[in-house]
Amino acid sequence: MSKTKKSPNRRKPAQSKWAVAIEVTVILIFAVCAIVVACSLFLRPPEVDHSLPWQDDPAAVTTEPIQETDEKGEPVETSVPAGKQDPVEYVRREGVYNFLIAGHDRVAVNTDVIILASFDTKNNSLNLVQIPRDSYSTYAWKTYHKINGVLPCALSRNGYDYKGAMKSFMDYLMQNLAIKLDYYVLVDLDMLRAMVDLIGGVDINISADMEYNDPDQDLVINLKAGPHHLNGEQAEHFVRFRAGYVQADIGRNDAQKIFMSAFLKQYKENLNLNTLTGTVEQMIKNVTTNLSVSDCVFFAKEALELDLGRVVMVNMPGSDILVTEGEYASYFVLSRVGTLDAVNRFLNVYTEDITDSIFDRNLVFTNAANSQINAIYRTETKIAKEYIAEEVNQSGIYIPRT
Questions:
Q1: Overall pTM surpassing 0.85 (yes/no)
Q2: Domain 41-46+90-395 architecture
Q3: What is the per-residue pLDDT across 106-130, written as a single tens digit (0 to 9) for each?
């Protein structure tokens, strides 16, 4: 009687690390798609915080009360004594959300891109206010006086917790600019590349050759003048270039306006389920933010309704200065009057204007002991120049070159 041979035990071949990574990526993509579809079916506008961004609100005023008189012109007593100041009631406008968008390069965490965005979902409008990275700014935990250093200093205090540091940065801007910020978004250059490639590139007419080489950052920029359809890598080079501009960083800010206008146009034209899910996936993978997935879906869909004729871009007003008094450094100094005007026109979520008595009460954007800095802050009034995205896409922006 022959014995039946038992087949030898065969072990399943071990999956390669690449196979596992691919499976995880596929699962992630399907999960994101499922979340996006579910969220889009039950989208609700995000809840907002109604607390005021400044501390110890002073008795802000509207107008002096009118003194009532009798038929003979004699003053009569009223319930409000003459000369008493009426406190302003700050009520949020419905459907308006403010964002802090900060960007850093691959080498350092200094925020060389600082944008305050106000998105009015009821009126399909968007205001983008750029704060120059060299803006003079003092903060308690560092002697460095440029605003792009606030985040790295906050990081060192928060144990390199990026969410905690961005929250500190957001609080700093809220308290001193007297603006309400609802969300923070910290992006890097990889995110920029990915988003541009996701929407199929952007169309930009480059006014003059862009050539720059920085071996320390492994950066080689070589873009020729003329119309281009830029991919992610080329778009990164376009927004980073500054060496050939008369006002280096201000020129770069204006180039970024050209890019943002082109990006928004292309995003609107190419928004579909793939773009939407890709946007949310990139936000999950590459962005430090307090936005939830449903928030991302809500705002990504609302962006489709944006009227590019109502997308306004401005620089926070002020002037460049080379300080030689007490120190030797170059700064961009904000104009107090001009900056407060920009806050009220482009960033105020309330039905009443922010008053001078609330704005920059700690004087962090000046140095009272330095006559050069304080002269610009106190006496040089500049009103922010507006750029409309639709017009920028048609005519561009003239940026003086060296």
A1: no
A2: 3-Layer(aba) Sandwich (3.40)
A3: 777 899 999 999 999 999 999 999 9
